[in-house]
UniProtKB/TrEMBL annotation:
GO terms for molecular function: manganese ion binding; metalloaminopeptidase activity. Keywords: Aminopeptidase, Hydrolase, Manganese, Protease. Gene3D superfamilies: Leucine Aminopeptidase, subunit E, domain 1, Zn peptidases. GO terms for biological process: proteolysis. Belongs to the peptidase M17 family. SUPFAM superfamilies: Macro domain-like, Zn-dependent exopeptidases. The lineage of its organism: Bacteria, Pseudomonadati, Pseudomonadota, Alphaproteobacteria, Rhodobacterales. CDD domains: Peptidase_M17. PANTHER family: LEUCINE AMINOPEPTIDASE-RELATED, PEPTIDASE B. InterPro entries: Leucine_aapep/pepB (IPR011356), Macro_dom-like (IPR043472), Peptidase_M17_C (IPR000819), Peptidase_M17_N_1 (IPR048816). One of its GO terms (cellular component) is cytoplasm. This is Leucyl aminopeptidase family protein. Residues 311-318 form the Cytosol aminopeptidase domain.
Amino acid sequence: MTALPDFAPADADSLPLHVISPDDLPDWLAGPGAEWAGWLTAAGFKAALGEVQLLPGTAGLAGAVIGTGTAQTRARGRFGLAKAVAALPAVDWHLSGALTEAAAKEAVLGWLLASYRFDSYRPGKPAPALPRLKLPEGLDGETLLAMAAGEYLTRDLINTPSNDMGPEELQAAFFALAEAHGATASAIVGDDLLAQNFPMIHAVGRASPRAPRLLDMRWGSDGPQLTLVGKGVCFDTGGLDLKPSAGMLLMKKDMGGAATVMGLALMIMRLGLPLRLRVLVPAVENSVSGAAMRPRDILTSRKGLTVEINNTDAEGRLILADALTYASEEEGATIISMATLTGSARVAVGPDLAPYFTDDPAMATAIAAGAATGFDPVWRLPFWDAYEPMIEPGIADLDNAPSGGFAGSITAALFLRRFVTTPRYAHFDIYGHIPADLPARPKGGAGQGARALLYALPEMLDL
């Protein structure tokens, strides 16, 4: 796993990073920053969001300034202050300025997330040293580090190419996570899935020489039960309904749901939250061979519901269905599924928002509050009952790919809901990828919704 940066020691010598808004800039230049007024004016410093300027001193570097931008620019993007990580020299720094607790927390979390580098495949090009930040007084550093560690794990798993991150390798990462935190883990592999009644996980993965499997982790002995279920399609060709080549370019990220629930599990276990955690990951590769499932096949699920396969590229909901049925067999659990499930979700909300579904108003309230606290935007979409007939093909109980093209994310969520018996259920249809570099979010794999859920858990589970 990519090494997590640490905070600069509290007693270490450090340089000030002055955080200044455009409104406060004139007063700062006339007061505390007067000695640099000419320097900054000549440099054209306007305190735009993430704008950094080094400050000279008689003995060398005296510090730096960074702009917060206007309220409008801050509303248009998170973690603007994280631009400092790439702009500052690799020495120790501390924040200076009148930051609210929330602003300081966003700055520190952004700093940690911006320090991520995925260099596993460039051993001859080591990453440059990065600046370190002192933890401001009053902030919970352990939670910030736990969130960063979970995100690093998620990014590493998604960014690893599929030749090195198939079902077996995902299992190895899953088991390593369990071992590192004193959890127990097991796997049901290959034809044992049929023997133990996971027929749809087997059907999706049987065409690949890399055997399908169901991964199961348990941690904690007291408190409410939380079960996380993550889609682990390690590569998705589309099956016999083959994707075009352009459609396969990002398919190493189709295990982003699994990667995200594993990142969230890391956060929960590292922080020692008082709950009983279970993580289920159906891990498969959706490949093409003579053993592949065919369009118009009808599969019988673990729950006994029959499913007509009207598109072999709508495979994620099939493996999740068996896993969700298994999760629901444990009474009293709160269940959350996360999956890179539909392109319709991206059309609806784009890559920056994670849409989610729940019928439980209390869960929705907690998730919305957690999203704001964790700087992790989500958007609630409806389990719209009026669309239920769209997933009923007539020849079988369910259709895995309704025709018509409307409400694809909703119909997929409705499909999953058929396999869950508890009302305490939420489903996240995430993207798991950043298309272009953003502050604290480099292009590539990304977790979505995990921090929102971490902050939602105390209210959601009454911890």
